[in-house]
Write a structure and sequence with these properties.
elongated, 7 strands, 4-stranded antiparallel sheet, 4 helices, 2 domains, PH-domain like, single chain, alpha+beta, 3-stranded antiparallel sheet, about 45% helix
Length: about 180
């Protein structure tokens, strides 16, 4: 279920609870009541996301004891995260690649080497800005995925900067410069 659908379902449940309660709300202005419901909805969504994060982190920690990482020792994780309210998608940015893992039971893993990244864009809607969420769009020379979007990630400006610096570092390491196509 998307974050927007979750938001609407939570909001509807709050309105339903208010309607079924014995609260005297006739003196409260409608705009104030709507603001309160929106505030409670956003707080509930943030709490649900935090609970998902804690559950996923505990699960990942338990799995790492049985399935140790076999990655190259020189590869360092620079950032990792997931889309807001997601259980089935996870993003990792290392000093070598971008890894996108999808799936809850079965897993689909996609790697994009940083050396292939051409351009990185960041976008946020007004609602995403209030929650400090946003999307990072990555354009690359990767044939399988020339454009990839990291959806609804927390602190997109920080992630954009981490990714931009990692791309610059890998280009410097391999003594490569970017040349735009006209």
């Amino acid at each position: 279920m998307s974050a927007e659908k979750s938001r609407e379902r939570i909001k509807a449940r709050i309105w339903q609870s208010i309607a079924q309660s014995d609260l005297e709300l006739e003196t409260v202005e409608k705009a104030q009541l709507e603001s309160l419901v929106n505030l409670v909805t956003e707080a509930a969504m943030l709490e649900i996301n935090d609970q998902i994060d804690q559950s996923v982190a505990a699960d990942d920690e338990a799995k790492s004891q049985y399935y140790p990482q076999t990655e190259d020792a020189s590869e360092q994780v620079l950032w990792q995260g997931k889309p807001f309210l997601s259980l089935s998608e996870h993003y990792v940015i290392t000093n070598e690649r971008i890894r996108i893992v999808r799936g809850l039971l079965g897993k689909d893993r996609q790697d994009i080497d940083l050396i292939r990244v051409q351009d990185i864009d960041q976008s946020q809607t007004l609602r995403e800005r209030t929650l400090n969420l946003g999307d990072i769009t990555i354009h690359s020379h990767d044939r399988a995925a020339p454009m990839v979007v990291l959806n609804n990630i927390r602190d997109p400006e920080q992630v954009h900067n981490i990714l931009r610096k990692a791309v610059q570092n890998i280009r410097g390491k391999h003594k490569m410069t970017f040349q735009e196509e006209m």
